[in-house]
Design goal:
Hydroxylamine Oxidoreductase, Chain A, domain 2; two-stranded antiparallel sheet; mainly alpha
């Protein structure tokens, strides 16, 4: 029965391949039509999604003929075998088989389960070369290979059990990791041979993958590459429209630790998006403020190619989402200049810790961008703002934001001094800086409260997040709690 269905799919695909195509419709390869013949029956949503995509409607060859600023393909030349056909199932799932440990025989074709950035680089090499070395491309490495971060997530995610002396914490399971931090940061997907599964066509053998499914931005793929293009351009439409809308970023950039979406939704820019976005063009390349959209989304500020009214770029496209960022407002525990490279595991501060600043706030400058590079990147971001705002408005906004960054750092320093006092007086145990209540209050100070105030200040018009939603109210309240906790511990120990 299984082979009857497969034969039917082949016959169906061949007949459709040679059927007369409407003018302008891309030719679909025989291999992809074979895939569609089965998958249109058994996973119809995937096929329907792909049929909406640009991949299904045009060819790499036609893409190469676009003017430079309108081009969505960055390869200087394309594999002749791909040039004149639509980019379909086979064209993506058969790339670089020699590198893919998840490559397997599937109804007569050799197929990879996971499509990786290296595969996408067949047509989009510039994007892959920008993304892979970025902080997003290194998101799994940076989280898992930094012993401080490992201790933090293991303490928080590990299952707690009560003991005679207090609480015991287990290492989090792979499933918990996949559901929590590693859902966004990514997992390492390895192929452990083949396994047999039951399907509508009977038993078939497929790769046995660890930590799958996962679309985290720093995922390590079975071909050794890092990242998942589908984190932002979800399969199988791979839509630029979806990537440009803030709902995609909102999957990971949420309160309390990275509250970009929450802040944006409350901001003036968010109000305009919710009211007017149905009138905007989220697919035009290049993207034009005032013509295609009336307020920025995440991608406007962080990576899109933007064109001014004179036809000159306001900002060039980049898939390194930190390329326009000069200051890192995600406290660790303080703000600091952006790292020189996406792999932050190499950083060592003067305390000997793999963190970008010391506990006293001194930056590990040799690993961070210098003032000239900070200024260059800040000017890049200002150029984006100038697409809608005059120079004075932009300069005053950036000055206000810089002040908020400085003041929240001062509030974090106050919390750090309280924690250091507690460690010095043996009121807390510094072996694990994240497992006691006082220490967790310190983490809240920089991870939740200071970060939120900075995001809200940076993204304009979200005052409640600067003040009462995790912002200065919580910074103040948290300091008071830490102070009172230390005083209570002193009394218990008979100290003044």
């Amino acid at each position: 029965m299984r082979y009857f269905f497969f034969l039917f799919a082949i016959l169906f695909s061949v007949s459709e391949l040679f059927a007369e195509k409407p003018a302008g419709e891309a030719i679909i390869s025989a291999e992809t039509m074979a895939c569609i013949g089965c998958h249109e029956t058994y996973t119809p949503g995937i096929v329907a999604d792909w049929r909406t995509s640009r991949h299904s409607k045009t060819t790499p060859g036609l893409g190469m003929k676009k003017p430079a600023l309108e081009r969505r393909i960055s390869a200087s030349q394309v594999d002749p075998a791909l040039k004149d056909t639509a980019v379909g199932c086979y064209e993506c799932h058969s790339r670089n088989p020699e590198a893919h440990k998840d490559n397997f025989e599937h109804f007569g074709s050799m197929i990879n389960v996971v499509v990786s950035p290296k595969d996408c680089a067949t047509c989009h090499p510039v994007e892959e070369s920008q993304y892979t070395p970025s902080k997003k491309g290194n998101a799994l490495l940076n989280l898992e290979k930094n012993p401080v971060y490992h201790t933090l997530y293991s303490t928080i995610l590990g299952v707690k059990t009560a003991t005679d002396t207090g609480l015991s914490t287990e290492e989090p399971s792979d499933f918990t990791r996949q559901d929590a931090c590693f859902a966004c940061h990514g997992t390492e997907v390895e192929a452990k041979g083949l396994k047999e599964i039951d399907t509508e066509l009977g038993k078939i053998k497929v790769p046995d993958l660890t930590n799958w499914p996962n679309m985290g931005v720093g995922r390590v793929n079975p071909d050794g590459s890092r990242g998942a293009c589908t984190a932002c351009h979800p399969r199988h439409s791979f839509s630029i429209e979806i990537a440009r809308k803030p709902y995609t970023c909102a999957q990971c950039h949420l309160q309390p630790d990275v509250p970009a979406w929450d802040v944006y939704a409350e901001s003036k820019h968010g109000a305009i998006l919710f009211s007017k976005s149905e009138e905007w063009d989220f697919t035009d390349v290049p993207w034009r403020p005032g013509k295609d959209f009336l307020a920025p989304t995440c991608s406007t500020c962080h990576n899109s190619l933007l064109l001014g009214p004179d036809g000159e770029p306001l900002a060039q496209r980049s898939h390194d989402f930190g390329a326009r960022l000069w200051v890192r407002i995600f406290g660790l525990p303080y703000s600091h200049p952006q790292p020189k490279q996406g792999n932050t595991t190499i950083i060592k501060n003067k305390d000997g810790l793999p963190l970008p600043t010391t506990f006293a706030g001194e930056p590990a400058s040799e690993y961070l961008i210098d003032e000239a590079e900070q200024t260059r990147r800040e000017d890049l971001m200002k150029a984006v703002c100038h697409g809608c705002h005059n120079r004075d408005w932009v300069d005053m906004h950036f000055e206000k934001f810089a002040n908020t960054v400085k003041e929240t750092d001062r509030m974090t320093l106050a919390a750090t001094k309280l924690l250091l006092t507690a460690w010095e007086e043996k009121l807390a145990d510094e072996k694990n800086p994240f497992d006691e209540g006082l220490e967790q209050d310190w983490v809240k100070q920089w991870l939740f409260n200071a970060t939120t105030a900075r995001y809200a200040s940076a993204m304009t018009g979200a005052p409640d997040y600067v003040a009462f939603k995790y912002g200065f109210w919580e910074l103040t309240n948290n300091l008071q709690k830490m102070k009172e906790s230390i005083e209570a511990k002193r009394k218990l120990k008979g100290l003044k």
